[in-house]
Amino acid sequence: MSDELPSPDMTLALDAPKNAPLVSEWLLGTSAVLAYHLGKADIARMIADVSAVEVRLWNTEFDHEGYRVVLVVEPSLYSAYNEQQLEPITEVMRDVLWGSGKSVDELVARPSIPRLGPDWRKQIKTANGPKPSNQGRKVQLEPGHPFENQLRFTNEWELDVYRALRERQESLPDNETIGIMPLGGMRVRGWTFEPDLLITYRGYAGVIEIDGPHHKGHAGRDHSRSRLLLHSGVKVVDRLNVEEVNSRAEVKKFVDDFLAQLKR
Questions:
Q1: Are 46 and 36 in contact (CB under 8 A)?
Q2: pLDDT per residue over 136-160, tens digit each?
């Protein structure tokens, strides 16, 4: 069975009900890969960092379908998507749609809207609220995220891996243990990332990314992200697919294998 992402039906409008579930990931992925093959690696990475696109039919004059495309990006990345950067992204997306009778008439960006917890006022106003911090920026104001040892996590899978790492941390000698940083803001050249777990061990740094069941279709983005981290001094970048893990013992084995790579 092919792993290729399904494509929208180009005989229909891109925002037609049949196409709506497909067009965001297809347009982002195809545009990013095309940009990469055209030698525009920076543009490819910018497209890969977009969370989703919103597509709406904008103009139907002269047998032409012109679309207004909105790039939805994390608030921390929003300022990077200025007019100067949007222009080459528009050009690549037009190349993707070339020959289909469809085109991008307007491309804009907007920040993704955070989910609110009932105590958001308290979080903002109190000293314990989300002051400028590099820990868990994306989840600080959103409800329902795990919290343990004064650390925030995106989901239970990250917390499970953290607990396995903490057990390993506690089993090691005091003078040869590991450091664990979940969701730490990290600046690499041109980008700000928030790795799921950054681990320090024996003078090296490694990154663990946890891929949940809804992560399919992001291989190109994952590769670019890993490459940037490795070029920035991270020794090992490894990924745990939660759909392939069936027991606590398998999580512990993944952690042991990761630490073995890191100390080599």
A1: no
A2: 555 555 556 777 887 888 888 899 9
Global confidence as pTM = 0.55
Does residue 108 contact residue 90 with C-beta atoms inside 8 Å?
no
Question: Secondary structure of the chain in the HEC alphabet?
Answer: CCCCCCCCCCCCCCCCCCCHHHHHHHHHHHHHHHHHHCCCHHHHHHHHCCCEEEEEEEECHHHCEEEEEEEEECHHHHHHCCHHHHHHHHHHHHHHHCCCCEEEEEEEEEECCCCCCCCHHHHHHCCCCCCCCCECHHHCCCCCCCEECCEECCCHHHHHHHHHHHHHHHHCCCCCCEEEEECECEEECCEEECCCEEEEECCEEEEEEEECCCCCCCHHHHHHHHHHHHHCCCCEEEEEEHHHCCCHHHHHHHHHHHHHHHHC
Domains and CATH numbers, the chain: 20-111 (3.30.300.20), 137-263 (3.40.1350)
Spatial separation of the C-alpha atoms in residues 250 and 253, rounded to whole Å: 5
Return the number of other C-beta atoms located less than 10 Å from residue 25's C-beta. 16
pLDDT of 43-82, one tens digit each?
Answer: 998 998 898 999 999 888 777 899 999 999 988 788 889 9
- The two most distant CA atoms of the chain are separated, in Å, by 73
